[in-house]
């Protein structure tokens, strides 16, 4: 009891961590019309009124899983009957009856979500510098993105400018201009005069006037003391600025002084409180909340040192131009920011009920992150329409989506906001949500702005849900399985059917290899081709490169063409990626285990020892991959499944873990603060956590990694 008194402040029937209490009372509501007393009273009432419902929804998950396990065990050895399987899923309430057709009715949606297809970043809220970089990634240098990555080749880079590589960049960008902003009679490669006369764009090739094929693509310009600084073009609602600076080394010998293409890149950014952070207590939560508050107030700043130089990062200003008709033109200088809250499962000790048990973390997130947005609703620097955008992950089916709607409604009441001010983005990343996506959307048809195929978590849930069905196929083969094709197609199909086109985002998942930009340029164009109007990228640079895809593909045209062609494939969606009679040899099994174990350890050691929730982690081949809890969920569930079906043994897995721990230790040898796992396996909390994630994986709720990660990180911190 003394410990509670020392660390917590009693408020009504709640015990609130003092660090959170002080943040709310002294920072969160400063210069707003909402009083902290009003907030605490409303939060307390909400927590107690929704506590039982939250717990019951989690219990339903467990009950359904037990029923599915029982069905597979009862039918083991029998020929799989799809019709019987679907009938069973309907009987237990896993599948819902099809709803009638409807269109979403969400109002006050910002253009970045409704009408501008483009890349979307996801960044941890706990790192202020990363958050600012992502917010500022609305505009990016195409010259830098190409020169500094393997997009145009993998020559070794050093501090000296490589004119050969620079030439490649210039040619690539001229080709891009020719493709996206074609000229009537000529090529951008040959343009030797570029001027603005009477606000009009004047282009010449050898003194011959040349025009854009589509003159409407010219939007305006920037100048300083009558010197032209930039020319603004637009295509598919995305802007490109031609930077004119004849004195820049990149414009050396360039007849028009073109020194760069700055292109509209990350149109929107998700500031993440969930998978990419390691927030296990009030201190961690307040760090994230404070950064989000700074973004909403517009005053978040961070000072840092890089290569001996000191820098200060802050939010970019808007960009100002003179339009083609001579009027002032202002464009947004920052990405539209959404906030990803946690799901319904996790609880937080930041606040305790009267019985000293932790409260649902998702309810706290909704109230705090929405309250921070009160500052932006006055400024209208993020949302110009007066909306708050919350992405809600890891929901299982329509009832859980309806529960999120109820939480948001309670937050709106307490914060004195109009109903449906808080918009919801639905992460379509759990099997029960995918199977009932239309019904899920209907529950929030007046506040939904987003559906996204989080295929990494979705794969983890696929494995856990069908754990008893048999051994899962190898992880690398999973992307070509029937269920994932149906899943990606169905998401677009249902989004279009529900009226998302021109109104809400249909999103696609992350490109996980930030150093493989050439591969990304080749492959990720398939996302806009599929009809998705946004897709996740791992960095501002990747966003700049991926933005080119949305110039080349008019997503709204694609949506019109495919809207009626895609058929909802429930059988494909429910197909189970198991191997009935696996014939893997010892090398196949060893390679799979080593790949999984190395990935698990590489991620977990940073999470537990350093509190890093998402980072570029080298894989077994030393290729850096963006890892978060979703990738961890796949790897741990995959081994748990193979253990359960005797594809491998406990001893085999443990020995593989020890072998891979030494490799991970070597990969981190240059980190002075790194704690080697192999020095003492018994005492390494990180190694123990990795073991638990595998050996206790079958028993984890929905195969989630959060409970074990949080528990062990808390132990490590304390």
CATH fourth-tier homologous superfamily of the domain at 586-717: Malate synthase, domain III
Strand line-up in the sheet with most strands: 3-12-17-20-21-22-23-24
Total number of strands: 26
Classification by helices and strands: alpha/beta
**Whole-number average pLDDT?**
96
Radius of gyration: 26 Å
Q: In CATH terms, what is the fold-level topology of the domain at 586-717?
A: Malate Synthase G, Chain: A, Domain 4
CATH class of the domain at 586-717: Mainly Alpha
- Given as residue ranges, the uncertain stretches (5+ residues, pLDDT < 50) are none
Shape: globular
Main sheet record: 8 strands, parallel, barrel
Helix content: 40-55%
Number of helices: 26
N-to-C CA distance = 18 Å
Strand content: 15-25%
Give me the CATH architecture of the domain at 586-717, please: Up-down Bundle
Write structural notes for this entry.
The structure is a single chain. The chain is α/β, with parallel strands linked by helices and 718 residues long. It is built from 26 helices and 26 strands. Among the domains are: 141-264, Beta Complex (Malate synthase G - maily-beta sub-domain), CATH 2.170.170.11; 586-717, Malate Synthase G, Chain: A, Domain 4 (Up-down Bundle). The longest helix has 39 residues, at 36-74. The chain is globular.
Topology:
Blueprint: H1 2-7, E1 8-11, E2 14-17, H2 18-28, H3 36-74, H4 82-91, H5 111-114, E3 118-124, H6 128-135, E4 139-141, H7 142-147, H8 163-180, E5 193-197, E6 200-205, E7 208-210, E8 218-224, E9 227-235, E10 238-244, E11 258-264, E12 268-272, H9 282-297, E13 301-306, E14 309-314, E15 319-323, E16 328-331, E17 336-340, E18 347-352, E19 358-360, H10 361-372, H11 374-379, E20 388-392, H12 398-414, E21 422-427, H13 431-435, H14 437-443, E22 448-452, H15 455-465, H16 482-497, E23 505-508, H17 517-523, H18 526-529, E24 534-537, H19 540-552, H20 555-562, H21 570-574, H22 586-610, E25 615-618, E26 624-627, H23 629-644, H24 650-667, H25 685-695, H26 706-717
Parallel strand pairs: 3-12, 3-24, 12-17, 17-20, 20-21, 21-22, 22-23, 23-24
Antiparallel strand pairs: 1-2, 2-18, 4-11, 5-6, 6-7, 8-9, 8-15, 9-10, 10-11, 13-14, 15-16, 18-19, 25-26
Helix pairs in contact: 2-9, 3-12, 10-12, 12-14, 15-23, 22-23, 22-24, 22-25, 22-26, 23-25, 24-25, 25-26
């Amino acid at each position: 009891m003394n410990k509670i008194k020392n660390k917590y402040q009693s408020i009504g029937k709640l015990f609130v961590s003092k660090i959170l209490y002080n943040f709310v009372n002294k920072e969160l509501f400063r210069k707003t019309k909402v009083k902290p007393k009003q907030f605490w009273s409303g939060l307390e009432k909400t927590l107690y009124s929704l506590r039982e419902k939250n717990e019951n929804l989690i219990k339903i998950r467990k009950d359904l899983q037990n029923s599915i396990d029982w069905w597979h065990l009862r039918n083991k050895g029998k020929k799989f009957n799809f019709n019987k399987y679907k009938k069973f899923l309907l009987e237990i309430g896993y599948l819902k009856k099809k709803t009638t057709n409807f269109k979403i009715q969400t109002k006050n949606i910002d253009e970045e979500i409704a009408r501008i297809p483009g890349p979307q970043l996801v960044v941890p809220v706990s790192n202020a510098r990363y958050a600012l970089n992502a917010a500022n990634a609305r505009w990016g240098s195409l010259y830098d993105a190409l020169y500094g990555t393997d997009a145009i080749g993998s020559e070794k880079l050093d501090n000296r400018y490589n004119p050969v590589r620079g030439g490649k960049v210039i040619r690539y960008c001229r080709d891009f201009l020719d493709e996206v902003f074609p000229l009537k009679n000529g090529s951008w490669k040959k343009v030797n005069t570029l001027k603005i006369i009477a606000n009009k764009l004047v282009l010449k090739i050898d003194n011959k006037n040349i025009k854009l094929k589509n003159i409407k693509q010219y939007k305006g310009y920037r100048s300083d003391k009558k010197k032209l600084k930039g020319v603004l073009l637009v295509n598919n609602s995305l802007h490109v600025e031609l930077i004119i600076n004849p004195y820049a080394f990149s414009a050396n010998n360039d007849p028009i002084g073109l020194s760069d293409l700055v292109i509209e890149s990350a149109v929107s950014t998700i500031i993440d409180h969930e998978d990419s952070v390691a927030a296990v207590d009030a201190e961690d939560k307040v760090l994230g909340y404070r950064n989000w508050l700074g973004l909403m107030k517009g005053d978040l700043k961070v000072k840092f040192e890089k290569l001996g130089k000191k820098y200060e990062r802050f939010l970019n200003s808007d960009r100002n131009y003179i339009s083609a008709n001579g009027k002032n033109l202002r464009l947004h200088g920052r990405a539209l920011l959404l906030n990803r809250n946690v799901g319904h499962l996790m609880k937080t000790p930041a606040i305790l009920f009267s019985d000293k048990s932790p409260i649902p973390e998702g309810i706290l997130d909704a109230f705090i992150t929405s309250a921070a947005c009160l500052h932006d609703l006055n400024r209208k620097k993020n949302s110009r329409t007066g909306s708050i955008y919350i992405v809600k992950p890891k929901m299982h089916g329509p009832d859980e989506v309806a529960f999120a709607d109820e939480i948001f409604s309670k937050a709106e009441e307490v914060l004195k906001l109009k109903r449906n001010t808080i918009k919801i983005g639905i992460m379509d990343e759990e099997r029960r949500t995918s199977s009932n996506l239309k019904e899920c959307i209907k529950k929030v048809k007046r506040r939904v702005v987003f559906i996204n195929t989080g295929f990494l978590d979705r794969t983890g849930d696929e494995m856990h849900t069908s754990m008893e069905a048999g051994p899962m196929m190898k992880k690398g083969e999973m992307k070509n399985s029937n269920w994932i094709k149906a899943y990606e197609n169905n998401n677009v199909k249902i989004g279009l059917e529900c009226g998302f086109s021109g109104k809400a985002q249909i999103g696609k998942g992350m490109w996980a290899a930030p150093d493989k930009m050439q591969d990304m340029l080749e492959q990720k164009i398939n996302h806009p081709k599929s009809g998705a109007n946004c897709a996740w990228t791992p960095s501002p640079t990747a966003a700049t490169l991926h933005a080119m895809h949305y110039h080349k593909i008019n997503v709204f045209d694609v949506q019109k063409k495919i809207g009626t062609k895609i058929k909802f494939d429930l059988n494909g969606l429910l197909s189970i990626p198991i191997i009935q009679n696996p014939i893997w040899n010892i090398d196949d099994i060893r390679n799979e285990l080593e790949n999984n174990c190395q990935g698990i350890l590489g991620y977990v050691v940073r999470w537990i020892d350093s509190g890093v929730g998402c980072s570029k982690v080298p894989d077994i081949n030393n290729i850096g991959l963006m890892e978060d809890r979703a990738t961890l969920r796949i790897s741990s569930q995959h081994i748990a499944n193979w253990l359960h079906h005797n594809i491998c043994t406990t001893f085999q897995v443990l020995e593989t873990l020890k072998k891979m721990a030494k490799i991970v230790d070597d990969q981190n040898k240059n980190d002075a603060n790194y704690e080697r796992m192999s020095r003492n396996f018994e005492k390494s909390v990180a190694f123990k956590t990795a073991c638990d994630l595998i050996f206790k994986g079958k028993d984890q709720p929905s195969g989630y990694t959060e409970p074990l990660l949080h528990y062990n990180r808390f132990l490590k911190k304390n």
